[in-house]
Amino acid sequence: MASRQVRRTEIMEAAIELFARQGFHAAKIEDIAATAAIGKGTVYEYFPSKQHLFHDSLDYLLSLYNEGLADALTEAAELGEGLRSFVDYQMGAYERSVCLVQSLTAIPVSLTQELKLLWERQQAETLSCLEDFLTRVLPKDVPLSRASYVSEAIVIYGAVNQYCLQRMLSGKLDEEDQKALQSLVRTIEYGVRRGGASE
After folding, report:
1. What does residue 171 show for φ and ψ, rounded to 5 degrees?
2. Angle at the Cα of 183 (from 178 to 184), degrees rounded to 5?
């Protein structure tokens, strides 16, 4: 018999799959239960409503994202390597969650504020992960203040997201995309080092 935490995770994973494929309104609790190989009543033992299930599933997904990002960046020994790892990781995350993110447009208004707070909390975790990475890989001769680490993390996050989104929309990875990635990495490296030099 599965522990409560394992069962809860199984339900959330089934919910993520169905919310992503069908959207919030079309995904039914009985279908989520069937996907998780449990009864409908069992879902309600863990989540009092579909809104709670959606909220907690999204929180779970975003937490997994941040854990994976931290792992991807931990293996990078220098800034350029870490930026390329971040792009690869972000592309994978986009591909895995694009349908779920699209389903956010059809959520009930009652959930909107809660999800905004959840997103802000998880975003802060992502930026903290990037700040830790910068602190670790930047040479000691690039002195950045705490505020600069935060600013650099925000710029990196925005630039990488923009690059990944454009790449996803183009639907291909060709030589031009590779050149764009190299240019992005060089630009960010230059900006970070210049930012440290100007402080």
Report:
1. 70, 15
2. 95
The DSSP code for 142 is: S
Sign of the alpha-carbon dihedral angle for 64, 70, 76, 81: positive
Query: pLDDT band for position 197 (50/70/90)?
Result: very low
- Contacts of residue 153, defined as CB under 8 A and 6 or more positions apart, other chains included, come to 127, 128, 130, 131, 134
Confidence of residue 30 (pLDDT cuts 50, 70, 90): very high
d(C-alpha 33, C-alpha 42), whole Å = 8
Gap between the Cα atoms of 107 and 155, Å rounded: 29
125, 66 Cβ separation under 8 angstroms: yes
CATH superfamily for 51-197 is Tetracycline Repressor, domain 2 (1.10.357.10)
Is the separation of the CB atoms in 28 and 110 below 8 Å?
A: no
pLDDT at 188 over 70: yes
Dmax over CA atoms of the chain, in Å, equals 61
Rounded-to-integer distance, Cα 112 and Cα 108, Å:
7
Question: Roughly how many angstroms between the first and final C-alpha of the chain, as a whole number?
Answer: 58
